[in-house]
Every structure is written in C-alpha cells, then in structure tokens.
Amino acid sequence: MKGKGARAWDENGREYIDLGSGIAVNIFGYGDEKWKQAVEVQLDLLPHSSNLYHTEPCARLAQLLCEKTGMKKVFFGNSGAEANECAVKVARKYAFDKYGDESHSTVITLKNSFHGRTLAMLSATGQDHFHQYFGPFTPGFVYAETNDIKDVRRLAEENGCCAVMAEMIQGEGGVMPLSYGFVKGIRQLCDEKDMLFIVDEVQTGNGRTGRLYSYMNFERTPDVVTTAKGLGGGLPIGACLIGEKAQNTLGPGDHGSTFGGNPAACAGAVSILERIDEKLLSSVREKSAFIIDSLNGAKGLKSISGMGLMLGLETERSASEIASACLKRGVLVLTAKTRVRLLPPLTISSDELKQAVTILREEIERV
Asked: What's the confidence (pLDDT) of residue 51?
C-alpha cells in the first residue's frame, strides 16, 4: 500500500479515502512533507541516544507540551499504554511519599474505559471483555459507573486511593463523552482527597476534538495528562505530562525507557505540535459540524456522539457491516463496540470529506 494525505492505495492500485488515520495517528495524513523532512534531518544527525542524555528534539518537544498545557514535566515513552503506566506510577509514588506506605495505591477508573493492552493497563480498563485469557491481572484498580460522581466518591471512601484516571471521551468504549458536571465533580473530589486526576488523551489528544487536548473542552485541568497516537504523526511515541502538584514525584531511577525521547520520533512530533494552531483547530470544529449536519436525518442513524473529528455513529445496520460496505466503495471507517467510528486526518479536504460522507450516509440508509 501507499498513501498521500487522506488517500490510500492498495496493492492493486485501488484508491480509498481514509477516515481512520491509522487509528488517530496520521493526523496530518499520509506522507506529510514537513513531518517527513523533520524526521529525515534528525536521522542524519542522531537517530538514537537513549534517555540517559538530553537531545534537542526531546527538550524542544517537552518545552512545547508544557507551554501549551501548563504542565511542568514530561516523560517520554513509546506508546499510549506506556504513558498510562507512567501516570499510574506517578500517582502511586505521590501517595507513597505522602503516607509512607502502599495503603493508598488504588486507582479508580471508569466502566467502559480503555487504557491499553499491557497487563496493568488491561487491568485498568473497565471492560469485562478485556479481563480474560491473560490472568492473573494486576490488582489495584476499581471501576466506577461512568458519569456517576457518587459512585466515584463511594469507591474513594471504601478504598485507599491515589488517583482517578479517565478518558474525556471513551474511544474504544464507543466514542462516549463524559458529562461536564461529572468531570467537574472528579476534579473537586481529587482536590478534596488529595488524589491525582489523570486524563488519558491517547486517542482524544493533539487536536482531535477541536481543542489541543480534550480536557480543555471541560475547563478543568488534570494533574497528569497522557498522550500518544497523533503526537508522533506516524512514529511511535508516548508522553506523560505531569502538573505542578506531582512534578517532583519521580526521581532518578524511578522510571526509565531505552527508546523514550527518541530524537527522530521527537523531531517528527515537534513538527506536528508546532502546526496545531487555532486555525487548524477551528477547521476541525467546522469539519465536525459538516459531518454531523450531513448525516443528521439519515434513515438508519440513531445517534451521533463525540467531539471534533472523533465521532461515533449508532446505526440500525451493524457497524461492522457498514465498515465492510464502505471499504468496498473506497472509504475506510473504524468501529468501536457497536458504533461506526470516524477519526479522519485533521487536514482532510472538504471535497474528500464530502465524497466520503456521502458514501457513508448511503450505507447507513441501506437498512
């Protein structure tokens, strides 16, 4: 296969409009020239050094992330799951430093959540479907009812807890946003009990929802933010951003990653992050409105969820059937549970979007 922009071609030369972006990774599409140039230049300079040493791309990326979010420290890994593992380690050590033992090591996550496929992050994921085959699973996680702050409080009072970890939009859980009041309640509860509020921005981050990070839509600042996917623009990278409260929690040797902060991956990420500006974010919101307006009223469409260019479609026809039908017609869409999931490149053109959404609507209406 090959790709350029929002279009991909298979081995037979057949063309597709991609509304999945490699699962929210290729946010500037395939073959982005500025990203490619940044990576190639760095490959000629220094492709790898390990995180024993500082490199200019790594430092620049950390600086950009902190400036754009207000966070204070950044730890780089290779994936979203690793970023989430780092966040849990930060929360548990924060509580250990406070209490002097492991009595407050439990992390509250939400039912229907997804946080990765390592054993610990499978354990953190609040879906029974993922809690089979690979046991015994890692202890120290409890699951609250989504959008029920009373249940979060109950778990915090019944367990020695160090953090609440949540996605602002549950991606693999069906593209289901949290309520504004619920996010406000989590922030208040964490402040009250001196727990860390961790927001998983692996899929929702880097402009996907029309803001740089999805928590910004809720006007509440977390203590720890994790991100990956679109940050790298096509190369593996994960980042754990730590705010003021816990910025000094990890010390030398407490955490590490051989490939973390890889100069080539960071150089590519810098080229991505520098170009996520208000003009781009405004266009994301406009394209989101176009998709919603174009699909509203379609026969066979029950509801639309999500924000920005992260949308879930509840349909009468099965999501997998619609995805297969769209594939045959040259449009790539994803699924999440029972919903069709749309994660197009943020830079997809209006004409490409119109063409793809027209085909998608026709397949939704083919009840």
From this structure: 84
Parts of the chain belonging to CATH 3.40.640.10: 33-273
**What is the tens place of the pLDDT at every residue in 256-276?**
999 999 999 999 999 999 999
pLDDT tens string 321-362: 999 999 999 999 999 999 999 999 999 999 999 999 999 999
Q: What is the third-level CATH fold of 2-28+277-364?
A: Aspartate Aminotransferase, domain 1 (3.90.1150)
Query: How do 106-110 and 161-166 pair as beta strands?
Result: parallel
Residue 14 CB neighbour total at 10 angstroms = 10
Mind giving me the DSSP string for 133-197? SSPSPPSSEEEEPTT-HHHHHHHHHHS-EEEEEE-SEETTTTSEEPPHHHHHHHHHHHHHHT-EE
* pTM, two decimal places: 0.97
Residues in the chain: 367
CATH architecture observed for domain 33-273: 3-Layer(aba) Sandwich (3.40)
* Alpha helices, DSSP H, located in the chain: 21-24, 33-45, 56-69, 80-99, 119-124, 149-158, 180-193, 263-273, 278-295, 319-328, 350-364
